[in-house]
């Protein structure tokens, strides 16, 4: 037991390697309207397998044995970026998932106790319910983009603002652009090739290839890859998650030529149709930095930005600083953009593991 909150509620640490406990946690997540892919044990296992960051799940349990709240965490440790308890690592959402405020308070107190025990280390909650007094509220840095999927392809096309729609029509009229979706080895390799080039061009270290493979493995049919090819050359690619009626393109990008070809526009338009065919009703375009070019691009696709709220706590007020907006990282980012792709792909995973 990690902590208690009276005789009728206890917070325990679940063992996600125990099938019964893992199934109970996932059943609770899937039953909650605010549950996300990042609360699921598939995400926790994938991150641990690919990066070594230990997964921990705090569960508030009633005397009946039923779960009333969860807080999934990763213990992220890095020589470059420091240590933290993160809910959850490499995610854009997560945080406390609970049915009432008493459960929220119990989980927040248990997380604080755990942070003191293993550190002390700071806690970072990405989304979820507000943990209460003593926690820092962080908002304004990121925005999210979600809207319903239209009833058909033509309606989806008309939902895109006119200027951006004209760009998409150019891609639709290009017979050389072909789209393929699935989980094959070829798609996995093509996705990594495109994604690695895309993030290098942005000055960001690429994640380990093992991370994408682990997510695909643990999510099973709830994750796949879409690749756009110009003839036989992959030019845009995205790894997508599916959760409770929501399609979430998560790790995506394009090569330098993608802008000229409008292949990213084509990819996300086709992905909306793919999600509709799978029975999805919401398209979650993920988060972007507020005021960034990426945020403006998503808005021009017909998505309204929504401010994301995160929370943090530490014993002494200290926190990790992994934001690329920090001035101390700017020179490194510019240098990274100039690295040969093979060298960036060699060094990137060693650095990015610590970002969490």
TrEMBL record:
UniProt cross-references to NCBIfam families, sorted A to Z: pepcterm_femAB
- This protein's name: FemAB family PEP-CTERM system-associated protein
Give TM regions. Answer: none
Pfam families registered for this protein in UniProt: Acetyltransf_6 (PF13480)
Q: Where is the BioF2-like acetyltransferase domain?
A: 163-299
